[in-house]
């Protein structure tokens, strides 16, 4: 009896694990099912707020950004109205500037959105120029959008100052030393040749006096770093032409080319609008150049050491000093009659100041570039708004295009000849010659400057200055997009490609301007 009971108990003990195992498995499966259910619920709970955000009553994302920017723009207008009153109403100067500024920004953004397969991007400045031209020539808008000539001239001169600061800071002494004679040959030769050829062609085709012909020549003689520099940087990143330093050569020479053109223009401008003899005017121009260069060198040495390196926010302070000194030099030189001194002072100041800044120079350039992003839409929008279709003569456009095209052909041919003794192949010489044609920023500043000077001091010369303005506008409209397309399409096909990591290329610190 005892034995049977003990055996039964023993059997029960043996069967216990087998009976509990399914229960444990069942419990574990239930817990896993509950966990998965919880995770699914948690995921659905997480997605619910996202769905609610998309359909939420206060809008989010792009719609919120659009409304915020619209309200900000309206508040800027309200603040300006509270200070100036009628100036921000239709017909006022601030109203005209705001419309031109935002129209130029929209025009530049629209051109950036245009994407054509296997075709390089067009420069946004072309959209800004066309936006200003549209605002001026639409009948309804042109009646209410007006900008005072003094306001327009001051803003354009300020834009010129920023261009010169970027050119001075962008001159890399190491790159100039490395490229030596080729860089100076490319910067000086084509500019002077185009200026002289334009003077001759405009004298016979447009009936320009010789001094006006040379003034127009220096307006057209400058190449645009705003088109050349980004295009060359793209080729440089891809490794095209880097073994012989072609992108670096064109980037460095573009700033020097602008310096030569601006200096020649200021000299011709003082000759055209003065009553003395040509010899006295040339000597006065050299006097202005000497004064500007010396003043710029002294101020540049000052900015090298003040503020000192132990101060905080050093790049911002240096950028502020350079901007304030250079704007004062350019605008002040016009008030005291030293027209050519301000530009040379700006170039010398920014170049000398940046010599000992090493890595800090790049940070200053970024701040100056931010300032240029504000003045660029104003500059090209105002230039576009100066051209009126109604005031153009019937044959003016054809003669202006013919003058510009013939001078450009001479420039391209002369550039090809200058590069014949620099160690480049036939295809590379063709590429360099064609890459040296885009025009934009300097033409946008210098073209209207002659018109403003004529309106103030010599109204009887306004017809010549309007023709200069028209040629400058057409030069930007024709050469800027075509130059960008030629560089982007021809470069990869003509230049030899090398691995950028295996070739040590001396890069300049040039910024876009």
Automatic annotation (TrEMBL):
The species this protein was found in: Ailuropoda melanoleuca (Giant panda)
Compartments (UniProt record): Cell membrane
TM spans (from-to): 66-83, 95-114, 212-235, 247-273, 285-306, 340-359, 371-390, 396-418, 430-451, 471-490
Domain Cation/H+ exchanger transmembrane stretches: 117-481
Keywords: Cell membrane, Membrane, Sodium, Transmembrane, Transmembrane helix
One term of GO molecular function: antiporter activity
GO biological process terms held by the UniProt record: proton transmembrane transport
Topology of the protein relative to the lipid bilayer: Multi-pass membrane protein
Any GO CC annotation of this UniProt entry: plasma membrane
Biased composition (Basic and acidic residues): 29-38, 45-55
Main location: membrane
InterPro entries (UniProt xref): Cation/H_exchanger_TM, CPA1_transporter
Entry similarity comment: Belongs to the monovalent cation:proton antiporter 1 (CPA1) transporter (TC 2.A.36) family.
Biased composition (Polar residues): 16-28
Annotated region (Disordered), positions in chain: 1-55
Listed name of the protein: Solute carrier family 9 member B1
